[in-house]
Amino acid sequence: MNAFAFDRDRLGLRRLGLRRPVSPALIVLAVLVIVTLAPAVVGGDPLNQELTNALQGPSPHHLLGTDEYGRDVLARVVHGTRTSVYASLAVVGIALLGGIVIGSLAAAVPSHGGRTISLLTDFFLGIPGVIVAIAIVGALGPGTRNLIVAFAITGWAWYARLAEEHARQLLSGRVVTVARVSGVPAWRCVSGHVIPHVFRRLLVVACLDVGWVVLAIAGLGYLGLGAQPPAPELGQMISDGQGYVLQAPWMILAPAGALMLVVLPFVAAGERVHGRVLRV
């Protein structure tokens, strides 16, 4: 089980017959543009309290109603979504870069050194990553920054394993063999040929994982380990809305709907291209 507790069995799904699958990079870019521009378009202060307007239903002034403190739910959902997406991008970026470097070293370092790195990767892959992330956040304290650190620390192994597999195939390929015979140092083959190729291939996988990391961050936010009040965060908003599910259902439906709209595009794209991009 990897750090994000995702079902990696989807990697074994048969490739669906799409001639032109949606580019994961375009999905990430579209989501990033939307969550970046949305606060300016929607307006409103997610922290502004108007106790006289508490638990008001959707209206022209508050399109998604207000919460128990009279704060605009739409403004909080928009800002909370941006926080979750930015944190997810940071987690995936750090884990991807660390995994590629470690995995490439495991493939390039001869004998015992490479096996030691592989065993370390197997160890991290074998432990329940979300539990470790919860323990790390518990030790460091709740907050978005500590969530990023926790998931990045436990998430690199997944990318390292993929990077090692691709790096081994590249190192045994004709290009590297010819370069080595020509006198090119091994480190230059790894840094100039292996790592760039591995990065381009795993970048697609990483883009698809952004949505799943958003879901994982929201899950820990629901437990109170993410962004702390009054800062908006989708998981925390869903947790807060539980106490008002009958009186003000929009408090839980709005952040849950935003979470679904962010995650589903990545899931849909992942089902179509994951099996394809992992092939060398």
What would you say this structure looks like, in words?
This protein is 69% helix and 0% strand. With 280 residues, the protein is an all-alpha fold. The protein has a single domain, classed as MetI-like (MetI-like fold, Orthogonal Bundle), CATH 1.10.3720.10. The model is unreliable at 5-19 (pLDDT under 50). It contains nine helices and no strands. Helix 2 runs parallel beside helix 9, helix 3 (111-126) crosses helix 5 (144-171) and helix 7 (186-222) packs parallel to helix 8 (234-241). The chain is elongated and about 75 Å long. It has helices at 24-42, 73-108, 111-126, 129-140, 144-171, 174-181, 186-222, 234-241, 250-277.
Average pLDDT reading: 81
CATH level-1 class: Mainly Alpha
Helical content class: 55-70%
Identify low-pLDDT runs: 5-19
Number of helices: 9
Largest sheet at a glance?
none
CATH topology: MetI-like fold
Topology as H/E string?
Answer: HHHHHHHHH
What integer value in Å does the Rg equal? 22 Å
Distance between the termini: 24 Å
Class from helix and strand fractions: mainly alpha
* Whole-number count of domains: 1
Shape: elongated
Strand content: under 5%
Tally of strands: 0
CATH architecture, please?
Answer: Orthogonal Bundle
CATH superfamily: MetI-like
